[in-house]
Structure formats: structure tokens, C-alpha cells
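Action item from last week, closing it out:
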Amino acid sequence: MRYNYVAIEGTMGAGKTTLSNYIANDFNGNLILEEYEPDKNPFLSKFYENPDKYAFQVEMTFLALRFQQLKDKLSNFNMFHDFIISDYYVAKSLIFSRENLQPDEYELFSRFFNIIFANIPKPELMVYLYLDVDHLQYNIHKRGRDYEQKIEDSYLEHLQQGYFDFIKQQNDMRILILDTNNVDFVANRRDYERIVEAIDQPYDIGIHRLVL
């Protein structure tokens, strides 16, 4: 990998964790996986049952988890690995919180985020995996997490729009948007190789789009 720090992003069901695992294993990467299970964030399952009541708690907990994990991992880089690859970028906290919080809650949350964000290195390349909602829902149901089974299409659509709005505002990052609707990198090795080839290119600062 030509980049020292790559972050794979996308809405739930996009395949970011699986892809990050594959790349880390094949290219000797130091893997950072988001801690999203209910035992790490006890408000997560409650949020899906009652989002209005638990949105602020779930977002603050995720922010604290992400900050602590990245702080620990990025400051203690493993010399026996060639690069860092993560299945999230900490800015997703803003994207999800804008969708889930009330305006006054979001204003308070963003203040905390900006304080923390200043102390976190940015990835050299952020890769956004785009799948349409039908594909996302198929993957979500296939992996079978109980607390995700009632996610509505509209929620996924709003999150995707939130990602696009965020991406449009970035002017100092390398961002690669990969449309993966027509590939299956889990079942097809050549599809996976095409994704790796797309990621491992010398991109300039800015937004780059590729349909696979």
C-alpha cells in the first residue's frame, strides 16, 4: 500500500469491516476495527428501540470509544506492520449525530467533537464504499445482528446523504468513492483485486469517483 493510513467508510452493510480485514491480512496492515457491539456501547440496542431517548447517549459513547481507540492505536504504531487500515473515520460521529440528534443536542455534541477531532490524525486516503439501500439491507439481514434488523430504508438513505454532504465539504483530504453495486469482493477474488487496485493509486487531494 502506498498510503500509511487508510480509512474505509460507508453506511452499515457496505462491507467496510470485511474489506479492511482482507486488506490488512494480505498486505501486512495494522488493523483498527470499530468497537460497535452492545457490550462496548450499552446504549446501542436501546437506541434502535427508542432513538429519541437514547440518541445522545449512544453518540457520545461512540465518540469516546472512537477517540480512545484511535489515540491508542495511532500513537503506538506497530513497527512490524507496513501501514494502518481502519474500518471507520472518526468524522462519522458528526454524520450520525447530525441525523440522530436534536439541533440543540447536535450543537453541544459538535463542540465536544471539534475539541477531540483536533487531536486525531487524518487518514491519507478515505475510501467510501457506496451501495444502494437494497444491497445494504440484504447485507444487514444476512449478518443477522438483532439490533439492526428493524433499520428502515429512510434511515440508511439519510445517512448516505449525510456522508455525501460531509464529503463535499472536505477540501484537504484524498477521498475515493467506490460504487460497488456490481461487484462481490467476498465471493469473487477478482472483484476484490479490482478494489485493491483502485485504492492503491496516487490520488491528489480531492474527491475521486469510480464505478466498479
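Closing note: The longest strand covers residues 125-130.
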